[in-house]
């Protein structure tokens, strides 16, 4: 019996990238939430959910308007 070299995706390495992206999204959503809470925003949870589900668009939007968020 001979061993056949399998591509990395066949042995599970392909599942690491989506997991890594999920962790990054969660981390950024947490950072947005924490920053909005520190700025006394009434909508901190909404910003965090938007950052998680809206990705780059909401991240950029938050950091553009974050000075006005807590007012």
Automatic annotation (TrEMBL):
Key words, A-Z: Membrane, Transmembrane, Transmembrane helix
Transmembrane intervals: 6-33, 45-65
Listed name of the protein: Putative membrane protein YhdT
Organism, scientific name: Halarchaeum rubridurum
